[in-house]
Amino acid sequence: MKKVYVNELKNHLGEEITFSGFVDVVRDKKWVQFVILRDSTGKVQMTVEKEPAENASMVEQVTALTHDSVIKITAKVVENEAVKLGGLELIPSNIEVLSKAEELPFDYNNLDGVNLDTRLDYRWLDLRNEKNMLIRQVETALTQGMREFLYANNFTEIHTPKLIGAASESGSEVFEVKYFDRKAYLAQSPQFYKQMAIAAGMDKVFEVGPVFRAENSNTNRHSTEFTGFDLEFAHIDSYEDVMSLEEDLLIAGLTKVKEKYGDKIKELFGIEVIIPTKPFPRMALKDLYQKFHDKYGFDIPTEDVGDMNAEAEKLTFKLAQEEFNSEFMFITDYAATKRPFYHMRDENGKLQGYDLIWRGTEITSGAQREHRYEELLKNAQEKGLGEDVKFYLQFFKYGCPPHGGFGIGLDRLTMLLLGLPSLKETEFIFRGPNRLEP
Ligand code: ATP
Question: 124-426 falls under which CATH superfamily?
Answer without folding.
Answer: Bira Bifunctional Protein; Domain 2 (3.30.930.10)
